[in-house]
Amino acid sequence: MSLTLSDYEAAPPPPDDHRKRLRALQDKLFRIQVAHVVYRRRAVIALEGWDGAGKGGAIRRMCAKWDPRYFEVHPIGAPDKAELNRHFLWRFWTQLPAWRNIHVFDRSWYGRVLVERVEGFASDAEWRRAYDEINRFEADQAVAETPVIKLFMHITPEEQDRRLAARLSDPWKRWKTGADDYRNRAKRGAYTEAIHDMLAATDTEYAPWTVIDAGDKRSARLAVLEHVAERLSANCPLVPPELDPAVAALAKEALGWTPPETG
Q1: Entry pTM
Q2: Quick one: angle between helices 157-169 and 179-186, nearest 10?
Q3: How far lies 217's CA from each of 105, 144, 230, in Å?
């Protein structure tokens, strides 16, 4: 089934209990991360979306209760000189997670078929070839038992303009916007075409895309966390580990601790 951005512009309002649901999802994500550590799992989460769509806010809430030793957030910008001298996927191979880790990409390898395509930083041959290269890259992760969870956060041009203006009006948010936002805004049609081509070419069984209607930030954050929790839960058992009898014996001797009664 093809994904069309205009199907994700209803901007559903947040539920009345959205704060409670957010806390519950964060608690669930905490347990999911513990399970990844205990059962030696790993995962990749990649977020793409329009400037101002709320990727950063969703990531902050997603990771709010995670142990920082076992996750990393990679903010992806333009490649540096060393990266330009290598295959475009090289820098992403070097940032993949080890066992027990979850890595989150704020923008990703899809820059090759989005900004590099639209801005002319990649030739037609390079960005067209990249679809197959990306699909192979993600298939390799699936074979290595590393699920790739991909989300695209969509907002309308009117909502994007409102958020860009709000950033300028807040002195503590002005750093989040710059000339690139307005250059990209002027090419919205070309970016929309590139996004639709990307979704069509790389929405695979092993690494499917999920489009998030981000017109309301609170609803979007819930949607992101719900989807990530669902996908990560499928990656490992959500069962707490058994207590090591040797550790229990040490705790009893040192602390007088005994296991709580169950039943």
Answers
A1: 0.94
A2: 160
A3: 19, 34, 20
